[in-house]
Amino acid sequence: MLAKRIIPCLDVKDGMTVKGVNFVNFRSAGDPVELGRAYSKAGADELVFLDITASFEGRKTFVEMVRRVAENVNIPFTVGGGIGSVDDVGNLLNAGADKVSINSSAIKSPQLISDIAGNFGCQVCVVAIDARFDNGEWMCYVKGGRVPTGKRLYDWAYEAQERGAGEILFTSMDHDGVKEGFACDALAQLNSMLSIPVIASGGGGTMEHFRDVFTAGKADAALAASVFHFNEIKISELKDFLSSNNINVRR
Questions:
Q1: Tens digits of residue pLDDT in 217-245
Q2: pLDDT more than 70, % of the chain
Q3: Per-residue b/e over 87-112, b at no fewer than 16 CB within 10 Å?
Q4: How far apart are CA 56 and CA 53, in angstroms?
Q5: Are the C-beta atoms of residues 179 and 205 closer than 8 Å to each other?
Q6: Which of 46, 92, 94, 163 has the maximal Cβ count within 10 Å?
Q7: H-helix or E-strand containing 116?
Q8: Active-site positions?
C-alpha cells in the first residue's frame, strides 16, 4: 500500500501566506518562501502553493515567487491559481513546480485537462474541486468559492479523471478552516468511484482528524494549512501518531 501523504498548503494573497475560514476572513500566516523551506525540513511529503485570488482577479500566478519557493525546498511542489493554458503550465514547470493545480479554468474549459496531460503527463495535472453541500448534494464552485457552477462533485470528479487528471484535490467549503474534521463520507465516495489519488482538504484540526480521513475517508493524502502554519500540529508528531494507528506514512 502506498504511503499516505501529509501536504501543507500555502494560500498566497498579495505575496503573503494567508488562512481564512469558509474561504473568507483571511489572516496572515507568514512568508511563503520561509514556510516552504521550514516544511521541507520538517518532513512534509509535498507542498501546495495556491494564489487564491488569481482566477478571481484575472491575474497569472506570480512565477518569480514560484521560482524562489522551489529553490528552497527539496520535496514535490504543486502550484495553482490563474492557470489558463498549456503555456502557463510550461512556465510554472520551468520555474520549478512539479505539478499544477487547475480549478476554475478546468470547469470553464475541460479540454485544458486533456491538453496538460497530453503535453506533460497525467501526473502533472491536479484538478482541484471546491464544493459545498447544497440541498442534499455536493455542488462545485469556482472563483475562490464565489460562483456556483451547477456541476455535481462526483460527476465532475469522474469527468476530470477521464480527461486525464492525475489527482483530485477536493476541498469541502463547509469544512474549510473550521477544524472539526474532514468531509470523510464524500471522500470515501470519491475514493470508491475513482482510480486516481484523492487529496483531502478542509477541516483538519486534530491528529485524530487526520487518522479518520485516511481510514474512514480513505484519502490518499491530507492537505491542511492553519494547523501547520500556527504550530498547532507538528508534522513529525503527526506522523508518529499516524504510525501508531497503523497508518503507513513516509518517514
A1: 999 999 998 899 888 999 999 999 999 99
A2: 91
A3: ebbebbbebbbbbbbbbbbbbeebeb
A4: 5
A5: yes
A6: 92
A7: helix 111-120
A8: 11, 130
User: How far, in Å, CA of 73 to CA of 58, rounded?
Assistant: 28
In terms of Cα–Cα distance, which of 103, 108, 100 is closest to 66?
A: 100
Task: Spell out the domains of the chain, with CATH numbers in brackets.
Answer: 5-244 (3.20.20.70)
Mean pLDDT for the chain overall: 90
Residue 231: how many other CB atoms lie within 10 Å: 7
- DSSP string for residues in 148-163: EEEEEHHHHHHHHHHH
Band (pLDDT 50/70/90 cuts) for residue 48 is very high
CA atoms within 13 A on the CB side of 116: 34
Q: What's the predicted TM-score (pTM) here?
A: 0.92
pLDDT digits (tens, 9 = 90+) for 149-193: 999 999 999 999 999 999 999 999 988 777 899 999 999 999 999
Phi, psi of 198 (to 5 degrees): -120, 125
HSE, side-chain direction, 13 A CA sphere, residue 180:
8
